[in-house]
Design brief:
The protein has one domain: Beta-lactamase. About 40% of the residues lie in helices and about 20% in strands. It is built from 13 helices and twelve strands. The protein has helices at about 50-60, 60-65, 70-75, 85-95, 115-120, 135-145, 160-175, 200-210, 215-230, 235, 240-250, 285-300, 305-315, and strands spanning about 5-10, 15-25, 30-35, 40-45, 185, 190-195, 195, 255-260, 265-270, 275-280, 315-320, 325-330. Strands 1, 2, 3, 8, 9, 10, 11 and 12 form an eight-stranded antiparallel sheet that branches. Strands 4-7 form a two-stranded antiparallel sheet. Helix 7 packs across helix 8. The N and C termini lie close together (about 10 Å).
Length: about 325
């Protein structure tokens, strides 16, 4: 398939808006299982590849040396909502390394969840860096630096050993040269972000899921991180988050991670497949519908009832301020 996956929003029986989504599904050999739109176009994956960025936390031995459990590893891959449990867990991880909130370099923002942000404000509080959706990932970075005996200061800079290890893992899994043959930039949490063809991210997740065409230890690290996220999805996201709904629909069978600007990446480990997608206009509602539709397509030949579950997740009813159903968000077809 070369045309985009189209996500429609309706009002009544009419289509009011359309979003175009590029989708890549690959196996570990790089074989394309599904390609919608331009899967060779370089995209910034943003937070959708936090599993790749957390691999050095496992590979260096830092996770085991500091006694990090599955919940800690899930938070290290998280774009969390800044809820109390997320904040406490991030502080706990830092504490295991003898560090605290002041050692983070991710910056702060109000919690993603509006109700959580309002409750914090009503209590007279204000956000700190632990509320940053990336605080778990940054806590993992700091744990790795401490374990390796490195100066943790400026760990967000491209030339710091922490970021060099991340860049090496990304290069290996995507078979690209981050920052050399594709654009590079600075992410919202201040670390480097590197663009690559969409299909390259799908292939990287497939390599981890299948344990093929990648170092066995690296594959084991990636699968351990994905397993932690599937076991503790709330810590990776939060209440009423799409990532949680997608993974809870098939416990232990599907890994899915969102990223800013309409990106989703993930894997179906039992099939050895990885996927990556991006809504051209960066719309989150389009990406969330598209990832559920993509998973339904992947699973339909293997598990019809589960595919139907993802089909249902690909459709969202739109309601007005009185709660009246006025339309829906839906995939036009795959």
């Amino acid at each position: 398939m070369t045309t985009h996956l189209v996500i429609e929003t309706t009002r009544g029986k009419a289509v009011e808006s359309r979003h175009l989504v590029d989708v890549a599904v690959c196996d570990a050999s790089g074989r394309s299982v599904l390609a919608c739109g331009d899967t060779d176009h370089a995209v910034f994956p943003r937070s959708a590849i936090k599993v790749f960025q957390a691999i050095p936390l496992i590979e260096t031995g830092a996770a085991d040396a500091l006694g990090l459990d599955a919940g800690d590893l899930s938070l290290a891959c998280a774009s969390h909502s800044g809820e109390e449990g997320h904040v406490a867990r991030a502080a706990s991880i830092l504490g295991k390394a003898g560090l605290g909130e002041a050692d983070l370099e991710c910056g702060c923002h109000w919690p993603f969840d509006q109700r959580v942000a309002l409750a914090l404000a009503q209590a007279g509080g204000a956000p700190n860096q632990l509320h940053n959706n990336c605080s778990g990932k940054h806590a993992g970075f700091l744990c790795t630096a401490i374990h390796e005996g490195e100066d943790p200061r400026a760990y967000v800079m491209p030339d710091h050993p922490v970021q060099r290890r991340v860049r090496d893992a990304l290069a290996d899994l995507t078979r690209t040269r981050p920052g050399e043959d594709q654009p590079a930039g600075i992410d919202g949490c201040s670390i480097p972000t590197y663009a690559a063809p969409l299909r390259s991210f799908a292939e990287g997740f497939a390599r981890l899921a299948a344990g093929q065409n990648v170092d066995a230890g690296r594959a084991a690290a990636g699968r351990r991180l994905m397993a932690a996220c599937m076991a503790e999805p709330w810590l990776m996201a939060g209440t009423r988050r799409a990532c949680v709904a997608l993974m809870e629909a098939a416990p232990g069978r599907v890994f899915a991670k969102t990223g800013a600007e309409g990106v989703f990446c993930g894997a179906v480990p039992e099939l050895g497949l990885g996927f990556a997608l991006k809504a051209s206009d960066g719309a989150t509602r389009a990406a969330e519908a598209a990832v559920a539709a993509t998973l339904a397509h992947i699973l339909r030949p293997h598990d019809g009832p589960l595919a139907e579950r993802y089909d249902a997740l690909s459709r969202t009813t739109l309601r007005n301020w009185k709660g009246t159903a006025v339309g829906e968000v839906r995939a036009a077809g795959l």
